[in-house]
Amino acid sequence: MASLLKKPVTLALIQLATGPDKAVNLSHARSKVLEASKAGASIVVLPECFNSPYGCQFFPKYAETLLPSPPSKEHSPTYHALSDLAKEAKAYLIGGSIPEYSPKTRKYHNTSLTFSPTGTLLATHRKVHLFDIDIPGKIFFHESEVLSPGNKVTIVDFPEYGKVGIAICYDVRFPELAMIAARKGCFAIVYPGAFNLTTGALHWSLQARARAMDNQVYVALCSPARDMDASYNAWGHSMVVNPNAEVIAETEENEDIVYAELDGDKIDECRKGIPVYTQRRFDVYPDVSKGGVKYEE
Fold it and tell me: 48 an active-site residue?
């Protein structure tokens, strides 16, 4: 069986500090992505809502129009900044997420764009599961007050390396997306995400390790840096987990870059040692990756 990851690759997660000025955020992201690529990273990830503050009150103000694609620079300066940056860095760039506005539907989305080292758009993922929670005395947040969900599973092919599943933040709590991506041959699942001080402490690491353990693939969570002066305080702790559910790279709450070397041999070793991929009982329960899965909006 051919390895899911064709050759070793260095992954970098940019735990970016952001503020209210979009142009400053884009310029700062550029400097950090280039720093990561110069350090040897061939796949670079930015965090959720990296070009704006995170919050329902900010989404409409910072939203950009992405369709029809490619958008004009006026409609989406971030699209063009990411495309140019991927080309400059000569790296695959998973551009965290940005607020998107669709004039056709008059809806807002939380959207991730992935670009090739030539600056070509490879994938678009709209957050499928919206962050609507209410933990009394801790946090109330309803993305659905402003945002609408995406409607597909997102898998992108990096020809030199293999396939990667992409989802956003709250999507990590729904194991079906990860199971589908893994069973469709992904070597890693990447989640730009902004857990908060309540949910982060409870479940951030647990979710990453659980998705890695369930599927025996690499899992990466990329958070913004924590800003205690902001209206929403991100957890931080961007991390990479290997197919054996071990945290192989993690930072704390401040701005930082997390690097990890991903190796297909580790996936193969894990699956040989604990061969759940040959032990599943689809005669007893259904395979969620078969039938009815949407790959297009």
Answer: yes
| Bridge partners of residue 259, in order along the sequence | 12
Q: How far apart are CA 187 and CA 61, in angstroms?
A: 36
Q: 190 with 165: CB under 8 angstroms? A: yes
Catalytic annotation on 127?
A: yes
| Whether 32 contacts 91, CB under 8 Å | no
Residue type at 244 in one-letter notation: N
Record the pTM: 0.97
The span from the first CA to the last CA of the chain, in angstroms, equals 32
Which residue of the set 22, 32, 48, 250 is catalytic? 48
Q: 191 near 169, Cβ under 8 Å?
A: yes
- AA letter at 102: S
Say if residues 95 and 114 touch (Cβ distance below 8 Å).
yes
Q: What is the pLDDT of residues 221-272, one digit of tens each?
A: 999 999 999 999 999 999 999 999 999 999 999 999 999 999 999 999 999 9
Cβ neighbours of 63 (radius 10 Å): 21
- pLDDT tens track for 125-137: 999 999 999 999 9
Distance CA 59, CA 195 (A): 17
Indicate the helix (H) or strand (E) that contains 27: helix 22-38
SS3 content of the chain, % helix, strand, coil (to 5): 30, 25, 45
| Residue 169 annotated in active site | yes
**What is the DSSP pairing of strand 9-15 with strand 43-45?**
parallel
Strand ranges for 168-238 from DSSP E: 186-192, 218-222
Q: How many angstroms separate the CA atoms of 185 and 188, rounded?
A: 9
Structure tokens at 38: 């110069």
| Calpha distance 130→85 (Å, rounded) | 29
Q: Are 150 and 128 in contact (CB under 8 A)?
A: yes
Nearest to 128 by CA among 84, 169, 67, 162: 169
Out of 127, 186, 250, 253, the active site residue is 127
Which one of the listed residues 32, 64, 143, 169 is annotated catalytic?
169
